[in-house]
Predict the structure.
Amino acid sequence: MFEKLSLRDNICILIINILIMKAKDNENLPLHSQLKLALYEDYLNIFLPVLLLSKKFKRINVYDLCCGKGFYDKNQKDGSPVLALKSIIHNYEEYAVKKNFNCEINFIYNDENKEAYSSTKEHLEKITVPVGVKLHAFNEDFTKLINEKIITALKAHNDSVRNLFFIDPYGYKSITEEILKGLLENKKSEIILFLPISHMHRFKEVAIEDDYESPQYIALRNFLYEFVPENDSFFKDRDVSVLEFCEKIKEGFSFFDTYFTAFQLIERNKQNYNALFFISHEHYGLQKFLEVKWNIDKVTGIKSKLDNLQLSLFQEKSAKIYKDRIIENLKIKRTMSNIEMYFFALKIGIIPRICNEILKELLNEKQIEVIKIENKETSKYFYINPDEKKVYINYLQL
């Protein structure tokens, strides 16, 4: 996808990219940042009501661990911590106060940069919060805060607590298996993680093949070997696309299907992308994240909702790919229950509604039959949900 660059060119580009990534105090708010924040806000506004209305959770913790400055003054745009707090307040008042449900929401924000931390604290303290919403501010190293305070706190949580983590790190060197597993292993957490995926994709070959011991190359090399097995063909393939690169990282974040994962690509310009990765211990959180994606793009689930972005790469992928993957899986298994189909749909990135549409096509094409479990009769319905095994979906083609 990219032409082969000399080592010197690569180093120059790398330095420029590092400077771009570290320019967190830049007052401009690019369109890709707007999309990142819009996705985050949409997820909060979908998932917080679910948690509050369930009445199962007595405490919800929302973490923004690399919060930045909090507000873009020149653009009059909220940064992630201000946006998150406003969403928390709105949903708390709408679904906890009005329903008279006793639940506490804690918003925990951190930035290791003193200026960014102070700016965020100043902006958040101007916002009036209801009694049931508490703010906790930290100005600490990202890794140290997680290892010494957050993971310890998570281990003490019972089933009445739920955690949502938004992590927009300075690069990726602090994102390790130990960190992610530490946040997830209590089985009460979801993570939304932002990564500069084009930068990582562009320097993949140099990082894993050259002996040049730049700290930046070492950081990328360590990250890749942390989440992708060393003998994986991924390291030998020189033609891995950005989409394939994201799929491989997503697979690594699942830790051999221990967790549910998804990603959303965000275009910065014609050939530069960032990505939001979602990781959860349970299927329901993933379904809600996918609903955000499919609410934005009802055809492919991958396009931007910012109309002035021309997402050329996203045109490579369409709903036909999802149909092909379902057919391939049915060819292998021959028979799948509605529950198995539900989990497979989430794994490939589609919501139940889209899975139903694809299965209807296959049924009309006589590629499948649907048999009710209770009486062995044929069915026109697929019951794509995890609640009860109702039908078997049989592949009919040779």
In short: The CA atoms of residues 124 and 168 lie 18 Å apart. The chain has a mean pLDDT of 84. The first strand starts at residue 59 and ends at 64.
